[in-house]
Specification:
4 domains; EC 2.10.1.1; metal ion binding; six-stranded mixed β-sheet; binds adenosine monophosphate; Molybdenum Cofactor Biosythetic Enzyme, Chain A; Molybdopterin biosynthesis moea protein, domain 2; Molybdopterin biosynthesis moeA protein, domain 3; about 400 residues; elongated; binds magnesium ion; alpha+beta; 8 helices
């Protein structure tokens, strides 16, 4: 059996960013991945600006105590270009307005007394006081968002703040997905004896869509070798990854394994994890005419186990980072928290357990009582997974490694 870390590193070493980029409006680029660095064409702020309503002065004019009364030589609202500040005068200035050349400090209006066309300065500012220097936030020519960044709302705002109307992004990762199992029924259809609903279709499609993939859903493929091979061949043509669910165990009703072996290549992994364990990784050949220098001759294949919690957990731990690397991201590891276990789990498992737990009001972790890989309730109840190493029992009060769903579901 492979350890979780061995399986993950083997899987991720096979992934590299897909070919194909496009330029799209910044307003439409939410969640897309940058294929090129965004370089600022300007300084931000683009000029020295006042961060207070008050008066712009030359600090050298205030060296003597007697001379603190200055004539007001100009008025500068935000958005207007100032004249240079005449020596021995002050300029009335407002927040966000350009500091006039020659001025080296702003005195806030609460520390002044205005009378007619003159102002008395009641404070001795240090040079630079209440001035935001040109380029203090961003320097022209600097990289503000590196290639590989997935665009959050705040990243879009940052790009817009330097005037970027369009962004270079990688195309979306195209994923084909299908499900195997003659017992699977779609909600809305009557449930025959022995049948179950195809819940994984909903979970996996939601997970893929959250990652920003273009998903083609082939639905339920009958548990037959020929049907499985035909679907694989078709799906291989226009996709980067084929994801299946179910049928990767070794039962004789499991046709995914021989089908992928016939249409490409496959490694069957037994991973020492719970839930999870079987995971299939390989590739399906593309038809020759579809292949050119820019396109790979193969489409990746990942087969997930059918048990709902197993497929959910193996998706989060393996498929998610794999897809994000294809999408062009550079950092894909979820960040974990160290939290206190507020429960005891006496029995150590020889596998790496990923326990569904949630954060309680005291900031510790409660464990969902039923950790069976068929119990989907645990994934909705929980806030994340405790990554419990093999052969390790958990005592209350102990610090454990917790990976929140907030890290794994985006
Ligand atoms: P398998 O991996 O095909 O041996 O399936 C393992 C278990 O997961 C069986 O109980 C299946 O009925 C169940 N299962 C397989 N596929 C799905 C699915 N798409 N939705 C819900 N349960 C499934
Ligand atoms: Mg099956």
């Amino acid at each position: 059996m492979l350890s979780t870390a061995e399986a993950l590193s083997t899987l991720l070493s096979a992934a590299s960013p897909i070919n194909g980029t496009e330029s799209i409006p910044t307003l439409d680029a939410l969640n897309r991945v940058l294929s090129a660095d965004v370089i600022s064409p300007l300084d931000v702020p683009p000029m020295n600006t006042s961060s207070m309503d008050g008066y712009a002065i030359r600090t050298e004019d205030l060296t003597t105590d007697s001379n603190r009364r200055l004539p007001v030589s100009q008025r500068i609202p935000a958005g207007h270009a100032p004249e240079p500040l005449k020596p021995g005068t002050a300029a009335r200035i407002f927040t966000g307005a350009t500091v006039p050349p020659g001025a080296d400090a702003i005195v806030m209006q609460e520390q002044t007394e205005a009378a007619g066309n003159e102002v008395t300065i009641l404070h001795s500012p240090a040079p630079g006081e209440w001035i935001t220097a040109q380029g203090a936030d961003i320097r022209s020519g600097s990289i503000i968002l590196p290639a590989g960044t997935r665009l959050t709302p705040q990243a879009l705002g940052l790009a817009a703040s330097v005037g970027c109307a369009e962004l270079q992004v990688r195309r979306r990762v195209k994923v084909a997905v299908f499900f195997t199992g003659d017992e699977l029924t779609m909600p809305g259809e009557p449930l025959k004896p022995g049948a179950i609903y195809n819940s994984n279709r909903f979970t996996l499609r939601g997970l893929l869509e959250k990652l920003g993939c273009d998903v083609t859903d082939y639905g339920i493929v009958p548990d037959r070798l020929d049907a499985t091979r035909t679907t694989l061949r078709e799906a291989a043509q226009a996709h980067d990854l084929i994801l299946t669910c179910g049928g990767v165990s070794v039962g004789e009703e499991d046709h995914v394994k021989p089908a992928v072996e016939a249409e490409g290549r496959l490694s069957m992994w037994q991973i020492a994890m719970k839930p999870g364990k079987p995971l299939a990784f390989g590739a399906v050949r593309r038809a020759a005419q579809q292949t050119d220098a820019a396109t790979s001759a193969e489409t990746f294949f990942i087969g997930l186990p059918g048990n709902p919690v197993s497929s959910f957990a193996t998706f989060l731990l393996f498929v998610r980072p794999f897809v994000l690397l294809l999408a062009g991201m550079r950092t894909v590891a979820p960040r974990a928290l160290s939290l206190r276990a507020d429960f005891t789990q006496k029995k150590a498992d020889r596998r790496n357990e990923f326990l569904r737990a949630r954060i309680n009001a005291a900031g510790g972790l409660d464990l969902f009582p039923n950790q069976s890989s068929a119990v989907l309730t645990s994934t909705v109840w929980g806030d994340g997974l405790i990554d419990n190493p093999p052969n390790h029992a958990i005592s209350a009060g102990e610090t454990v490694r917790f990976i929140p769903f907030s890290e794994l579901l985006n």
